[in-house]
Amino acid sequence: MNIILFHSTYGLRPAVHAAADRLRAAGHQVQVPDLFEGRTFETVEEGIAFQEEVGRDELLKRAVLAAAPYSDRGLVYAGFSFGGSVAQQLALADEKARGLLLMHGTADIADDAAVDDLPVQLHIADPDVFEPHDWLTAWYLRMQRAGADVEVHSYPGAGHLFTDPDLPDYDAEAAERAWATVLGFLESI
Q1: End-to-end CA separation in angstroms for the chain
Q2: What is the CATH number of domain 2-188?
Q3: Which of 23, 83, 85, 144 is the most exposed place for a label (fewest CB within 10 A)?
Q4: Quick check: 23 and 187 in contact, CB under 8 A?
């Protein structure tokens, strides 16, 4: 499977490379673009400030350019938190998308979004301060309305970025459960 994996608001950090290596070890080809051009951040607030400085349109442009050389193969778009938001926007706009893997984050969905049974898997903390229950319910219904085949996996008590061992949110048990589920999802596509 060809996968493009987008980093979180913290930037392209070791945990993203480790995730890509885990997916490669399972036989997948994984691209890991750096949308922040080498910048990494210690806090969510710093990362959000950088995103606002660069601008959402510029970051999406960078993501599109990173995916373009691989999109003719039919990509699985994947991402962590902010990167999940980016992955979702690209997957819903790519008629050749093979799947969408969201780790810790979602994005709004255009009213005219339409896909043909796109496999979507979301892994989310419960509760998650960045993805409240009301938002997730509305997101789920809109993704189904758009034609996606959606699975949501929630992890009670885990922190927002619970798969990143370098952050306080890390939850080893939840992370291992999530990765086992992710690998099964990718094998099913």
Answers
A1: 8
A2: 3.40.50.1820
A3: 144
A4: no
